[in-house]
């Protein structure tokens, strides 16, 4: 059976190409798809040593190796890999899915491969570094338009500017790629996805728009069974490409791009970080499958508990900070109304000092100082987990407030000395 070739419809006619899925197997090829024929990079034959394998108890029912496989295009993707791609495709209600080794690989591949010359990329100024790297590698690298973080008015202005820069967009001869995240990791706030979709649809013709939502931090948290912010808002049919990682809430590694079948095939043929990267090891594939099992079994229960703990943490810390000047410590607003974020940026004066204090108390605290963030926006970032308890959060809040009170007292002495 020859793999079917498809036309990449998102490109202008002059740039459209035929792409094929080289990983499609015939019945005969599948029968011969054993360990010996697949160990392309296993030069010392670890892969064939029984001491390096264990039997999977998962539904895959395959021998699982603890070593890495070959490149995906050259036999590196087993039946297990292809079966796993079907799992998120069905779980997230997507037309097609493609596995990547990491969220960074996925973002860089999507944005480095899809935009073509004449296209324009509009993106939130706070999107992840991997998205920036991908855009800089794309053929549209000279047509990047950032909009102010989560600002709908700025977003609208950028669309109007794009339409003015390239009249071919309205004629369907070029594409506007729009890139946002679901939940932003540094500020803990969520994108106004419904409003973004409404503006996009009102200003850009259907054949000339492509919305990409990076759901690394919203996976496993929002929506039914943790399907993400796009699912929560019922926007599966409006968002062209979604990127979900398995390395955050799902507790594993790797990522999946959810898109249509044509774009999936295009990425297989043209995404360099997919083509030239060794496939995920099979134990990773099994772990990801187990993560989806957990989401389906207890995802809603864990999300509900997480919401409770987030509400408890915010309300309790806010109450305890009333007597602390905002210049010393303040809890920024995160999430949206009725949509709690588990990421809490706490702006502090002396983030490195607070880091040392918390580490001495046994907390794995990491300051985020200037120049990582602008001056005056130094912070520590607290991430709440469903496995936390209220007592743990109370003890942590006590340490935060005690440090802030001591810092306030020390700061007051400095001011008095200056006056004297």
UniProtKB/TrEMBL annotation:
Residue stretches making up the Aminotransferase class I/classII large domain: 77-398
Record-linked InterPro entries: Aminotrans_II_pyridoxalP_BS, Aminotransferase_I/II_large, AON_synthase_class-II, PyrdxlP-dep_Trfase, PyrdxlP-dep_Trfase_major, PyrdxlP-dep_Trfase_small
Gene Ontology MF term list: pyridoxal phosphate binding; transaminase activity
One of the protein's GO biological processes: biotin biosynthetic process
Keywords, sorted A to Z: Aminotransferase, Pyridoxal phosphate, Transferase
Superkingdom assignment: Eukaryota
One Pfam family cited in the UniProt record for this chain: Aminotran_1_2
Cofactor (UniProt): pyridoxal 5'-phosphate
Family: Belongs to the class-II pyridoxal-phosphate-dependent aminotransferase family. BioF subfamily.
Protein name: Aminotransferase
Organism: Mycena sanguinolenta
């Amino acid at each position: 059976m020859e793999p079917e070739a498809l036309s990449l419809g998102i490109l202008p006619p002059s740039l459209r190409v035929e792409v094929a899925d080289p990983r499609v197997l015939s019945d005969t090829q599948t029968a011969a798809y054993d360990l010996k024929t697949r160990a392309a990079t296993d030069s010392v034959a670890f892969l064939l040593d029984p001491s390096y394998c264990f039997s999977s108890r998962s539904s895959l029912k395959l021998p699982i190796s603890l070593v890495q496989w070959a490149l995906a295009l050259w036999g590196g993707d087993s039946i297990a890999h292809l079966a796993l791609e079907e799992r998120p495709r069905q779980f997230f209600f997507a037309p097609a899915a493609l596995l990547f080794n990491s969220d960074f690989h996925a973002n860089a591949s999507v944005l480095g491969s899809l935009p073509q010359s004449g296209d324009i990329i509009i993106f939130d100024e706070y999107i992840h570094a991997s998205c920036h790297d991908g855009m800089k590698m794309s053929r549209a690298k000279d047509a990047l338009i950032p909009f102010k973080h989560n600002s709908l008015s700025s977003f609208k202005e950028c669309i109007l500017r794009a339409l003015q820069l390239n009249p071919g967009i309205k004629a369907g001869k070029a594409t506007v790629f729009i890139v946002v995240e679901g939940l932003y990791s540094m500020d803990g706030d969520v994108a106004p996805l419904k409003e973004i979709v409404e503006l996009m649809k009102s200003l850009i013709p259907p054949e000339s728009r492509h919305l990409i939502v990076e759901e690394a931090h919203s996976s496993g948290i929002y929506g039914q069974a943790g399907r993400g912010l796009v699912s929560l808002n019922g926007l599966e049919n409006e968002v062209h490409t979604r990127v979900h990682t398995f390395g955050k809430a799902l507790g594993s590694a790797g990522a999946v791009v959810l898109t249509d079948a044509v774009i999936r095939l295009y990425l297989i043929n043209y995404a360099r970080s997919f083509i030239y990267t060794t496939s995920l090891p099979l134990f990773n594939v099994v772990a990801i499958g187990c993560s989806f099992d957990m989401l389906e079994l207890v995802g809603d229960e864990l999300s509900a508990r997480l919401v409770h703990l987030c509400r408890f943490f915010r309300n309790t810390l806010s109450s305890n900070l009333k007597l602390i000047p905002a210049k010393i410590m303040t809890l920024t607003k995160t999430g949206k109304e009725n949509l709690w974020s588990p990421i809490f940026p706490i702006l502090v004066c002396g983030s490195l000092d607070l880091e040392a204090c918390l580490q001495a108390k046994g907390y794995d605290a990491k300051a985020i100082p200037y120049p990582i963030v602008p001056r005056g926006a130094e912070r520590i970032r607290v991430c709440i987990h469903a496995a936390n308890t209220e007592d743990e959060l109370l003890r942590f809040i006590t340490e935060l407030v005690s440090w802030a009170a001591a810092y306030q007292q020390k700061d007051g002495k400095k001011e008095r000395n200056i006056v004297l």
